[in-house]
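FORM 7B - TANDEM STRUCTURE REPORT

SECTION 1: FIRST PROTEIN
SEQUENCE AND TOKENS:
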Amino acid sequence: MTSSAAQRTIDAIWRIESANLIAGLARMVRDVGLAEDLAHDALVIALERWPDTGIPDNPGAWLMTTAKRRAIDLMRRSKLSDRKYEELGRSSDLYTEHDLENTMDGEIGDDLLRLIFTTCHPVLSREARVALTLRLLGGLTTDEIAHAFLVAESTIAQRIVRAKRTLSAARVLFEVPLGEELKERLSTVLEVIYLMFNEGYTATSGGNWIHPLLCQEALRLGRILAEIAPTEPEVHGLVALMEIQSSRFKTRVSPTGEPILLMDQNRALWDHLLIRRGLAALERAQKLGRPLGPYALQAAISACHARACTASETDWTRIAALYEALTRITPSPVVELNRAVAIAMAFGPAFGLQIVDELTSEPSLKEYHLLPSVRGDLLMKLGRMGEAKEEFERAASLTHNAREREFLLKRTAECAANVSGNRGGGRSARPN
């Protein structure tokens, strides 16, 4: 295996295994920042050895074993050990040194769930909680998190560093809270799981359009939360949203990895078991008798697509109304952009373009690639190919995802071909 191929393979393994690795180490050392450092130490060793020795049969276990040994060595020889053993002695899980050797081999509770509640502790600001959790559980880089939130990478990096220091200084317990404390942290936990899922559903960067394993992990955590907090409608709303969205995975990319848009997907291949689970979760949220929150409303939007046997049967008028409700409770330029798409589908591209044009002056969307992408699509439908081409070119320059860039450049080429054809006396494209 070449060094570049080994690097790509190790990067992929890290994406898959890092959250479990950090969570297991955090239970062991009771320090999230230290757990991440130990995990990265194991990664560095893998980068040094695997290109020569080859990838182990179970790379996750190899990384865990390596990190565990470094943790034990650290606890044996550093001054930190006294405080750590003292903390372990006070905790409900009493470990001896022999226990520390074996604590990683059997899971006590759900470490990932403990980690997410730890990183969402109220001692941190909301922004810090989200950034740190996405970094540790989602395996996202600071650049990817910054891109998702439309802020500077340095801002995200500072938040993460400060958050780890704060958790360590406060000696936050590595546990799932109960009662009112659970409710207090729930909204941030839901937000992070939602963002994890979104990153898996449409990757902000890299060479793959989707990361299904990240979505599966987010869905698993959501299902566990629904058992822990069964009377919280937004928990069921988020689970419903993820179940329905997950049903489309087989149809979202071509065999060679190119993106397939929703309206072009083969709906016969959607996973109808996941759709039924999602609709049932949405019904549970509705039966709790409280106004639908943002996750339940998004689930209701996804349900409109799931219930339509063909793309032409989609109830875009209802979707537009649901987006209108969503803008009232969580107003944001991104939600407004989605509403514009629904308006365009329900009432024609000219109406949608009018809303999109109003968003072009929004500072937070200046580097957001989906704004010119949506605008290009609407212009294309209106037959304004030259303008559409410019928008797709700009969108391609802004995206960090290689597959999405290829897709946008193909649309650029389609527009260019139409412009050239019109100059040669060909017919202009008609609105869809």
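SECTION 2: SECOND PROTEIN
SEQUENCE AND TOKENS:
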Amino acid sequence: MSPAAESSTYAGGRWLLTHAHLRAVLIAALGILVALVFSRPDVLILVAPLALAAVWSAVARPAGSPRAVSRLARDRATEGEHNGIIVQAQGLQGADFAAASQAAAAWVQRRPHHGSQVHYVTEGSLRFTLGVDPLRWGNRSYGTTLVGAVGPWGAYSWGPVPLPGRQRKVAPTAEHFDTRAPAPHPRGLVGHHRSARPGQGSEFSAIRHFQWGDKLKNIHWPRSLRTGELHVTSSYADQDTHVALILDAQNDLGISEGLGGASSTLDRSVRAAAAIAEHFAHQGDRVSLQVISGAVPKRLNPGTGSRHYRRLLQMLADAVPAPEREISPEKIRLGLRAGTLVVIVSALVSEAMLSRAAALARSGLTVVAVDVLSGAEPQLQQADAYERLAWRLRMIEREHEIRRVGQAGVAVVPWRDPGTLDTVLRMLTRRGGAGVR
């Protein structure tokens, strides 16, 4: 059974008299009684159409046992992608038309915008597809779905019966990001980045004289025959980099309007982290993730490939803004070995986060802090003069704190989408050590 089928919901019921049919029966019966008692043929003529419609409706009563099943078209969705609630209604033999309606939900865009569809019944079953497109990452509720049907003349109806809504995790959309700069300190034997030293690999380095211990299969016979001395081909080792992503989810500044609208700092942080992780994971580097939050601090061990990237997106979708309660100094460098590239994605407004970055840099790691607040400060149109003054003072303090962190060896770069890390990674590679001043 597929995941979508496992998440389906079921609702049944039976055909019931409508108020319109009941009124028609009562008025027709009362009119016939008055006509017979008081000898009023005109009253009989007046109620004759109602009596005819009541009899016709009773004869054409729908015969099926109505039921409906609904499921999500995609259990795994990404913000901005099309998704839908698929409703399969059965047992509608004899019905005139059926309708389905999707309730409004936060951060979910309905298609059509009113969330309802009506179809004529030509067979005993109908299929509805109601669009529900998530607009923001996180745990999203898709709302309740109502489905119902009506028989001929509106005499009998089924529903509307509720199909309970679902809550699913929506992964963030990775912002467009690319870097042509090599990552410093490559480790391992599987990645995209080339080592700075010769070794066993697949990329050609040079042709040199034979040395004791060289493999015979590496002998370059054209050069050896031409010079009369044995020469071998050498190569660079194909190695990978451990990129440790640290997401600062302690604060969420600004207003979020979903994908395509205004973004808060946490929106930009999550999407930037997804973009950086996608770039390094898909080229073979090992990527780990640590979410810093007082609500749900989480850690994902290093890994690579598309499956690991999907797990990373699911963890990013769980980010909830909450201040960190305390920092354990002995756990700051947990699992980070020498040569690890640490990328901190943060608004850099938390003193605790800045202290963590400085501590990692002083311990000998290469630390890059991606500033998602620069150039995208929250809108202050609704703030009064005192609030704006307080914000300006805080920004001045923040600039001073960022300079101090830079002096400790942390490279701070603003998030600028493609090529954000190019310059700083080239500088780190040339220096061969932690820190960029």
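SECTION 3: OBSERVATIONS ON SECOND PROTEIN
Residues 3-170 form a domain with the Immunoglobulin-like fold (CATH 2.60.40.10).
DSSP finds nine helices and 21 strands in the chain.

SECTION 4: SIGNATURE
Preparer initials: ____
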